[in-house]
Design goal:
Elements (H helix, E strand, L loop, with lengths): L1 H23 L3 E2 L2 E2 L7 E2 L5 H14 L3 E3 L7 H11 L7 E6 L6 H15 L4 E6 L10 H13 L3 E7 L3 H11 L6 E5 L7 H9 L3 E5 L11 H10 L3 H11 L3 E2 L6 H8 L8 H8 L19
Parallel strand pairs: 3-4, 4-5, 5-6, 6-7, 7-8, 8-9, 9-10
Antiparallel strand pairs: 1-2
Length: about 300
């Protein structure tokens, strides 16, 4: 009898774990096949031991998507964390971003190769242009061609953009085609919903990745989100993430705490009502947290 109970327990525990991995590697959102997984781990502002611990803990609880960037100065630490985790590279989806200082033709691809060395891999799954930097006279056609060349060399499986407005996204499309642009990673939160840009990207079948979904934690105390969270027996962070997922966005929240990493994952299980989605829609106040000069564009 005890043996039978243990077997049943193991069956459901293993099935539950398997289901979680399927969800984490899910490329489907709102019935649409996405170019990229819809849930990952962000690593902005995390360095050295902090990022090593965050990544190893995230991998331990089931994350398989990790987002980094050259300017984060943590690629080597992430490579170390992955190596120490025991998780196979083929089970991971890694994203990095090319920094503005490396946009020159003689620096672009060498910089990506250096990122690969730091990450201890021969390719990444997604490489993005981090900021378009129009005030620095950056030529979007030139950098998009270099990005496509990196893909053709097998250094990255997919390519995309980050922090591009509609005008600059259109320049990227005109240069390499929308079919070659996996995503535009942009700041989005209940306080910054940017419908104009989101609608444009979705019409072009370019995935939207939301970063800063919690607006540096500002949305966590929002009374409307708290009311919705209470109805779902959830946290306000989970509701904000669930809102983004339900809008069809990929999300990459970060945390250094095991309990928060696990909690964030559970946002995938929350289904908001149309009334609740409308309540969150009304929170939009065009409140932007990140717009660094001279790298940011004129926002839509």
């Amino acid at each position: 009898m005890i043996k039978d109970i243990l077997l049943i327990h193991l069956f459901f525990r293993n099935n539950k774990k398997s289901k979680m991995h399927i969800k984490l590697n899910d490329y489907s959102n709102l019935g649409k096949h996405m170019n990229i997984p819809r849930f990952g781990l962000g690593t902005f502002r995390l360095k050295e031991q902090a990022v090593i611990d965050s990544v190893k803990t995230a991998l331990d609880v089931g994350y398989r998507v990790i987002d980094t960037a050259q300017i984060y100065d943590n690629e080597a630490a992430i490579g170390q964390a992955i190596a120490e985790s025991g998780v196979s590279r083929q089970d991971l989806f890694l994203t990095t971003k090319i920094w503005v200082d490396n946009f020159a033709q003689d620096k672009f691809i060498p910089s990506l190769k250096e990122s690969l060395e730091k990450l201890r891999t021969d390719h990444v799954d997604l490489t993005l242009i981090h900021w378009p930097a129009p005030d620095l006279g950056v030529s979007i056609p030139e950098i998009m061609k270099l990005l496509l060349e990196a893909k053709e060399q097998g250094l990255t499986k997919q390519i995309g953009i980050s922090n591009f407005n509609i005008e600059l996204t259109q320049q990227a499309i005109d240069t390499i085609g929308a079919e070659n642009i996996a995503t535009n990673q942009i700041e989005l939160s209940p306080y910054l919903q940017n419908h104009k840009l989101v609608n444009f990207l979705q019409e072009k079948n370019i995935d939207v990745t939301s970063y800063m979904t919690l607006a540096y934690g500002k949305v966590l105390q929002d009374p409307v989100l708290a009311e919705i969270a209470a109805a779902h027996k959830a946290t306000t962070a989970q509701i904000a993430l669930a809102w983004a997922l339900q809008r069809g966005f990929a999300v990459i929240p970060s945390s250094t705490k095991r309990e928060n990493l696990i909690s964030n994952l559970k946002a995938q299980d929350i289904e908001l009502t149309s009334a609740e989605m409308q309540m969150i829609a009304e929170l939009d106040r065009n409140s932007r947290e990140v717009s660094p000069e001279p790298w940011a564009p004129v926002w839509d």
